[in-house]
């Protein structure tokens, strides 16, 4: 059975890419602020991130269907494997292909960044391999950690600390403690997107035995948790901009967008539309903060 290109594109969930790239763009803005930006590193970091995100989306499609979380009555976009448009075997081959492409792109990235097979090259290559493994085992494999409530901390780490701090290190070859704060903000906003996704799927996840944060604490407490995530993003930003000089006020506009999302999610019985808006808000936040500090 051949698969139409549109079905692969649908399974790739291209709408998730702005969120995935937000932390990489933030790392680039920070590198520019502190005088370390390199366009080649930026392009390779973006390509590696895109490949890893699509790999994760394929693995999520594959794993959730295999584990029973995606069924015909699920809320949200249809899944390729569950709907029969892509067979499990084809999707698994797609995952393997993306894993290889991610590895090649990542090797080029760290080789160019560190100028050869240095100790830092091997360290970051190890981090890259761990990222590939984490992308697959989130919902696929025998014991997917996304089914045990660890998805939020994983997203916070990979979309925040690894994405921002890691990409900044590729430019500067050094650690700047100031960048922890925007990394926390990016990670918090990405976690908020996952939280909306899990709030939307709370009933189907509970039936499938997928123990997400909303399944554990219920809808009311999940709304409180969502507000806490958003406020952490705002507070971390304020701490960061207070630690540097010559900051323009553009970033304040992102605070309004973040607060609006909290209100919308709190009042809606179907939070699905606000998943996309928070993902785009995360990108807007990065752009506004980036232009504020440069």
Helical coverage, percent range: over 70%
- Please report the total strand number as a whole number: 0
Any idea what the shape is?
Answer: globular
The rounded Rg comes to 19 Å
What is the number of helices?
12
pLDDT < 50 stretches: none
Report the average pLDDT across residues. 91
Distance between the termini: 51 Å
Largest sheet: none
Number of domains: 1
Fold topology:
Blueprint: H1 5-12, H2 17-33, H3 39-66, H4 80-83, H5 88-114, H6 119-137, H7 151-172, H8 180-200, H9 202-208, H10 213-241, H11 252-267, H12 273-293
Describe the structure.
The protein is mainly alpha-helical and 294 residues long. It has one domain (5-293). The protein contains 12 helices and no strands. It has helices spanning 5-12, 17-33, 39-66, 80-83, 88-114, 119-137, 151-172, 180-200, 202-208, 213-241, 252-267, 273-293.
Short description:
The chain has 294 residues and is mainly alpha-helical.
State the main characteristics.
294 residues, 74% helix, 12 helices
């Amino acid at each position: 059975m051949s698969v139409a290109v549109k079905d692969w594109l649908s399974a790739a969930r291209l709408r998730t890419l702005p969120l995935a790239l937000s932390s990489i763009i933030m790392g680039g803005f920070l590198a520019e602020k502190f005088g370390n930006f390199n366009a080649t590193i930026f392009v390779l970091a973006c390509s590696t991130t895109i490949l890893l995100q699509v790999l994760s989306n394929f693995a999520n499609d594959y794993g959730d269907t295999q584990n029973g979380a995606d069924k015909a009555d699920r809320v949200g976009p249809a899944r390729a494997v569950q709907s029969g448009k892509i067979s499990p075997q084809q999707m698994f081959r797609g995952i393997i292909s993306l894993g290889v492409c991610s590895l090649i792109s990542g090797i080029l990235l760290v080789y160019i960044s560190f100028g050869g097979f240095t100790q830092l090259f091997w360290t970051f290559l190890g981090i890259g391999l761990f990222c590939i493994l984490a992308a697959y085992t989130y919902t696929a494999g025998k014991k997917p950690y996304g089914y045990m409530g660890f998805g939020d901390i994983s997203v916070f780490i990979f979309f925040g600390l690894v994405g921002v701090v890691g990409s900044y290190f590729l430019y500067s070859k050094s650690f700047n403690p100031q960048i922890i704060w925007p990394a926390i903000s990016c990670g918090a906003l990405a976690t908020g997107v996952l939280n909306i996704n899990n709030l939307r799927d709370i009933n189907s996840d509970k039936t499938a035995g997928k123990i997400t944060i909303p399944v554990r604490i219920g809808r009311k407490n999940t709304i409180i948790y969502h507000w806490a995530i958003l406020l952490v993003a705002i507070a971390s930003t304020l701490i960061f901009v207070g630690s540097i000089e010559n900051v323009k006020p553009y970033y304040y506009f992102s605070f309004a967008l973040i607060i609006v999302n909290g209100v919308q999610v709190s009042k809606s019985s179907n939070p699905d539309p606000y998943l996309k808006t928070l993902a785009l808000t995360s990108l807007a936040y990065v752009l506004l903060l980036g232009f504020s500090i440069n």
